[in-house]
Design goal:
Two copies of one chain form a homodimer.
Chain A (H helix, E strand, L loop, with lengths): L3 H6 L5 E3 L8 H9 L4 E4 L5 H14 L4 E6 L5 H10 L4 E5 L7 H6 L3 E6 L2 H9 L4 E5 L5 E2 L7 H11 L4 E4 L5 H9 L4 E4 L1 H4 L8 H9 L5 E4 L6 E4 L2 H11 L4 H8 L3 H7 L23 H18 L5
Parallel strand pairs in A: 1-9, 2-3, 3-4, 4-5, 5-6, 6-8, 8-9
Antiparallel strand pairs in A: 7-11, 10-11
Helix pairs in contact in A: 2-3, 3-4, 8-14, 11-12
Amino acid sequence: MANPITQLFGIRYPIIQAGMVWASGWRLASAVSNAGGLGLLGAGSMYPEVLREHIQKCKKATDKPFGVNVPLLYPDIDQLMEVIVEEKVSLVFTAAGNPKLWTAHLKSHGCTVVHVVSSVKFALKAQACGADAIVAEGFEAGGHNGREETTTLTLIPLVKKALNIPLIAAGGIGSGPAMLAAMALGADGVQVGSRFVATPEASSHPHFKSEVLKAEQGSTELTLKELTPVRLLKNPFYDQIKKLYAEGASSERLKEVLGRGRAKKGMFEGDLVEGELEIGQVAAQIESLLPAETIVQEFITTYNTTLERLASLD
Amino acid sequence: MANPITQLFGIRYPIIQAGMVWASGWRLASAVSNAGGLGLLGAGSMYPEVLREHIQKCKKATDKPFGVNVPLLYPDIDQLMEVIVEEKVSLVFTAAGNPKLWTAHLKSHGCTVVHVVSSVKFALKAQACGADAIVAEGFEAGGHNGREETTTLTLIPLVKKALNIPLIAAGGIGSGPAMLAAMALGADGVQVGSRFVATPEASSHPHFKSEVLKAEQGSTELTLKELTPVRLLKNPFYDQIKKLYAEGASSERLKEVLGRGRAKKGMFEGDLVEGELEIGQVAAQIESLLPAETIVQEFITTYNTTLERLASLD
């Protein structure tokens, strides 16, 4: 059966690995692409020349399509985009910013451009700017996230109804049954983040991966809404943030404590006390590290068995 | 195909209409039951003798099973339970309280008891208390809601894995595709609230119903977490609450402003300025008032067409 997402990217399965900071280097991206999904390099935590190195290594590690995810708030974005064009990366996901800024430029260089949003309004804006597909991300997603707190279950039908380009669902999707749920709601494919953090291939620190496996219901919270909302795994750093809120701290004070490099410290250097740990609610369902290929295969197997289990109602 | 929920309740379709305050009287409950789902009277907004009247009218209006939903924090709960037992209501949903309090009593009178929770922990507790089934309600649901903010997409697989009694999903389910999504995640049936508010049969005030139809993405927020968390439709009363938060108001001050009778004022008397309006995120998807029977039929039709549309992946 024709699927708009597999056709758009030239991949086997409509499973996209999210380009996450400090997790998604060439090892993870190439493993997902080799398994039939779409791997993305997370450029948000890479200097331009580091990204170039990852692109080149990824090309060597897979002959399948892969892409790059770029947060549009990246300070040296011009240099990142130059690397992407020079290295002839043909699939680019842009997030956390205005799709007007780069979509036309990337498309003029032959790129397929996908923009990540958390609302109908921005989905329509990205479509108007020429995006080839949309990722719509629900409240349960890890990392930076919408202010409107719309969950994936509510968001996907709204975006689907408004849009006429292919739609990828993100947020809370860590298994084949959840993928089937997203497709039932109208998505053409899924973007999976947290589940791919718990792989040997993710570049995240082993301490962070262990915390992801330990996570339970209620282990994360979407916070820092005054700055850039982010879903954090609860740890001593999170407790500091909560304490500041309880004291009625200003945005300036929050920003000061947040400082710089917190995410690297937590997720890449494994400092579970002072570091910022970003993960989705679905971490509560993740119980073991698995190779990326096994994850993709399990998604497909359980998607199919779940579909077979569901009977029509009469 | 055998479905644990249709078998447990003796109904045709595994669709349960939520027993909502100021919406779910005998007209709505009997209409849903007559359409093949399970209608529930919302006892939370009824004096005991009013509940008796609704039970008696509901019995006259349908020969199908129906039930009563009881919030366990209800002040004169002994009297409500007396009415339920005297009137031989055989299906009782309990919510917002400790399942230890009434489950054994109701079961000793031959009732099937279902308990509503928003976490794995309380699902297990309710199961241990002898509940026959569980409703697990996600963050996107209207009305009173869990503190852990776990969305339906994340919550249902967690509860399903932990539980060995039938599971009903609630929160964000306003259409057949969303019902299919919930069933894919492991639910045996769904509880639907907001969609049934937008019916001619709901006892809610027409002004409130109009606001539900106008709702868009971002029109609701889960707030008042310090007291009892509740998802509110944004209106001038909600603005008052937000202003109090911005001023750093104490819980006592919040409670004082909330006062008594706000929900009745808003949802039953139609005061859109001073009243509290409770609804789920899914209100953004609701565009017209429809008879309850039509809603049930549309759920089934679109559940089936969605299931047919989904192809296995290979």
